[in-house]
Amino acid sequence: MGDVILDVRNLKKYFNVPNGMLHAVDDMNFHINRGETLGLVGESGCGKSTVGRVILRLIPHTEGQIYYDGEDILAYDKHKMQLLRRKMQMIFQDPYSCLDPRKTIGQIIAEPLKIHKTVPASEINAAVLNLMVKGGVSRKLFNSYPHELDGGRRQRVGIIRALALNPEFIVCDEPVSSLDVSIQAQILNLLQELQDTMGLTYLFISHDLSVVRHISNRILVMYLGTMVEICESKELFKNPVHPYTKALLSAVPVAKYGYKREQILLEGDVPSPINPKPGCKFANRCWMAKDICRKESPPVCTVSEGHQVCCHMATSNLF
Known about the structure:
- By secondary structure, the chain is of the alpha/beta class.
- The chain has a single domain, classed as 3-Layer(aba) Sandwich (Rossmann fold).
- The protein is built from 10 helices and 12 strands.
- The strands form 2 sheets. Strands 6-7-8-3-9-10-12-11 form an 8-stranded mixed beta sheet, sandwiched between helices. It has a 4-stranded antiparallel beta sheet with strand order 2-1-4-5.
- Strand 9 and strand 10 (226-232) form a beta hairpin.
């Protein structure tokens, strides 16, 4: 790791709504090193999935730059973007709705191979069967339909489809959130095994900090479309700095008999992301907020090497 594969700069995504402009992603800056997993966490509705979709250009951006291997992919035309999609893929959150119910498992996995013509037509079935073995899906299910599979197998098919073009970078959009805990562990282990054998890079989106801690090298915490903290996974759990991060971590269960963690209960309402007011978006829920927090957007402060936080209080002796 160390070689930057993805560099996101000042990324914004706004949606026009009847009452104004909804700020789904607001000035995000981060990078992902080749071969690592960056965990992206935050409450539901904070813009995590939107970040992943904008990066893959599934939806258009409003402002900013996205550099993949040093090239601004937002300037790519349709042809160059289609070639890039062989390198960038996505695993979707819902294993039920992301698979075409009218096609068999074999047809679903074969579709990207046919579209991109990376495998001769006579060899597609053999390639699909090999991919099914790699993803832990029995070859007997080649002619089965998605409704005949359970959630875990469906998600494995979604993973296999993402691997069909031998990509380098995959956006994992909450790939285990709808699965049972035991199945979650199997899918996470599969993703890590595939990363080790294929040299994959992940942006792993989740609202479950326990899951993110297990799989991520670094973690980025989002709140209402903005980054509030980013650092290595171990550092975040050992030394959280932003009040929102502390509140999130206080809610994570600890599997230790007799240990009771003091939970931080946030008060106040979540502000509307439509036409947000100046200042820190977390200010009206923060127990440490000062007047400056409600008037000015917080700067990015460096706590230590690789550990950054967006908070006015981070550089004061009040923190």
